[in-house]
Amino acid sequence: METAPRPPPRPRGQGARRGPPSCPGLRGGRGAAAGRRHPGPAPLPVPGAREGAAVGAAPGGVRERRAPLGRRRRFRRSRRCRPGGSQSRARLSRRRRCLRPVPAARGCRRRPRREPPREPGRGEEPRRVWLGARRGRTYCSSVIADPHLTASRSPGKMASSRLPIFLALAFSSLSFVLSHSNRVMWFQDFFPPNMCPINAKANTFYGIMFDAGSTGTRIHIYTFVQKSPENLPELEGEIFESVKPGLSAYADQPEKGAETVKRLLDMAIDAVPPHLWKKTPVVLKATAGLRLLSEEKAQALLLEVREVFEESPFLVPEDSVSIMDGSYEGILAWITVNFLTGQLSGQSQHTVGTLDLGGASTQITFLPRFEETLKEAPGDFLTSFEMFNSTYKLYTHSYLGFGLKAARLAILGALDMEAVDGQMFRSSCLPKQLEAEWHFGGVKYQYGGNKEGETGFKPCYLEVLKVVKGKLHQPNEIRGSSFYAFSYYYDRAVDTNLIDYEQGGVLEVKDFEIKAKEVCDNMEKYNSASPFLCMDLTYITALLKEGFGFRDNTLLQLTKKVNNIETSWTLGATFHLLQSLGLTY
Fold this sequence. Notes:
Layout: H1 31-37, H2 89-97, E1 109-110, E2 126-134, E3 137-144, H3 147-152, H4 155-179, H5 186-190, E4 203-212, E5 217-226, E6 234-243, H6 254-271, E7 282-286, H7 288-291, H8 295-311, E8 321-323, H9 326-340, E9 353-357, E10 361-366, H10 371-376, E11 382-387, E12 390-400, H11 404-412, E13 424-427, E14 435-440, E15 443-449, H12 457-468, E16 483-487, H13 488-495, E17 505-508, H14 509-520, H15 533-547, E18 555-558, E19 561-562, E20 565-566, H16 569-580
């Protein structure tokens, strides 16, 4: 079989450096025949190039850098990178060595490309070049156009040029934080809450409530968040502080009394963000302390406090400073407890009642479930109010003169009598050998035990019954209900180790009776405690059983805090205030 004759050898020095004939400007190559057998790809249009411009010229007159001559190494590329589908390796090689600056497809993904190892020249700049598309994917490569730009943007020089910018930003941020009036709140001013997409629909608001009691003045700063009108406000936190003595101690110096309120109010200015000051109401409600003062002295104190509020940046309602009614205090305590226990969500009617035993009065409040209770209750014992898009009709009443300290005077027989110097009030609820003085309501009383009479639980209970029995209304519904009890109910249970001071506890009504018997029949054993301990426990037992009509097994939840929030009427008062002012959804 004849074989084709081999072509004559090429003379040395001619065509040693090969390049595709389709690449103008490169010397040598495989000759005209090779160029005809493997024509190079048609030049791609260059955006902005003038008609008749030289092929391979970059836009703006910058010429394309050609591949170095004499490179015999060939580069493989998968089919998906080929512009027209399947191409011969020779065509791809020529394509690779004769790249033209063309616009890359939008959004194309960079793919690594193997280039002949070389050092970048002056004025070279990376360009993105279309290499092909397959199966919906577009690939890009890079060529060198301006070596001057590439050489000037070395990593070391770029980092050194950006360092002063970073230092300037860091210095300005530090200066902003240090110069801010409130370094704790600077972030809220720099990024206001309404810029945060998470809290974009949440309504954040604050409420400031002062409790002006007889022993001290307390401030409660509450933070609430309400995500939508359908949801109840959520209590995010409480800030609490107090000062002593109470406002009533400054009856003759109202300016000094108002100064104590101003010191507490300054703390609220730091706690509430400035952009919410005008939407944050501030209110002071006085309780028993100011009730004991004359009308003239009490009003003088309230006027001074009102002036302090007016000078503050907060929202001051019309009735911002007042003396609170006793029955209103019971309603607010009921709102506080049921909100903290989650009983006010939706249309829930499974609420708990509240029992509050103060010094001069006692309150009972609950939500009746039976029509019989509503019919039998006296007219002034029922109160309706609307809160959280629901209407509640409560059974509530405050019994003035049935507080723990007022009951002591009634048991001693000194409640309706004027104390006379040298007059001794005695009771079988006190130790026989006891003789002492007691100040209450600005009056000094002398009291002692029955030296010749009988002492102990039985005679003491008979004395207490005269004060309690038949004096209070007894709704039948409460016998099987559960109640939260606080104030002196809580204090006397702690004094006798019935509950823990921090945690509180659950007791039955009969637990007070058992402890009263133990204390009253062994008064000598409890000499270090209050001399009124036997009388107080006996009175609580008679008040619950004979006064309100609770059963022995009725459960009482005694606590000072629920979810780490004090069970005070102040929270309920703040809720009611915010809703009445339309600050909630």
